[in-house]
Amino acid sequence: MRYVELVTPPNDAAWMKKSADLLEDLKAATSAEERAKIIDANSSVWGSLKTWLLAASHGKCWFSEAKDCFSHWDVEHFRPKTSAKDRDGTIVEGYWWLAFDWTNFRICGNVGNRKKGTFFPVRPGTNRVKLGGDQRQEEYLLLDPSDPEDPSLLFFNMAGEAIPGPFVRDDWERLRVTYSVERYKLDYEPLVQKRKAIWFECNNTINEYLRELDEYTQDKTKIIARHQVKEAAKRLRRMVDVREELSSVARACIISRSDMRLAGFL
After folding, report:
1. pTM, two decimal places
2. Which neighbouring-strand residues pair with 186?
3. DSSP per residue over 87-139, as a string?
4. CA-CA distance, 249 to 266, in Å (whole number)?
5. How do strand 73-77 and strand 105-109 relate by DSSP bridges?
6. What is the pLDDT of residues 62-90, one digit of tens each?
7. So what's the pLDDT on residue 112?
């Protein structure tokens, strides 16, 4: 998972007007059933933003950071639109007023989207945000790729498993990671295997970089070693580039080496 900036609305006046009009229709509805009909009848509204959402994440799923091994693309409502489930499966009212709000959309492979479903637990003892409320006051359990702090909580190991970062000590934050891995199905086996391959490639490239760097440091006449250092560095920079698939795995691999000579790649 990498941070996806979601601060600028779609550059589509017609879409923004349609969204605003539908929100007014939802507010005017007299029952949950009526609101659900409005939402269901207009699913194409959020579906039409798939290309825009994918462009924001460089063609990657916002949750898994995969391009092609996490199935087809769905526009996911981060806060569920008609009903929401707590961690124990208790069903509560959904965030219907956000059904057509672009800030509530995420792009996701349908493996993860189907597993998440309408689950959206909040921290025990805290309140869910209501219509007109401040979303910043809601402490939700799932990690959000559009929150600058959340992606950094998720880490990976050499086996391709998604885990809490070694620096994450807070019990609530660790729970957020483990629950998100489960609910977004980030333990999906093809995804795990792909991460494992990325880690292997990155680790071998690090070994090459450090080996050639040591050789050139010890003997400055070994010009070939200097060129090899540059080539290995180029590959590492490519692997951690936010545009690359599973770049967060490569970053985790580099961090796990705890070698200050690699700090420039992060």
Report:
1. 0.90
2. none
3. TT--EEE--GGGTT-GGGEEEEEHHHHHHHTTB--B-TT-PPP-TT--GGG--
4. 12
5. antiparallel
6. 999 998 755 678 999 999 999 999 999 99
7. 87
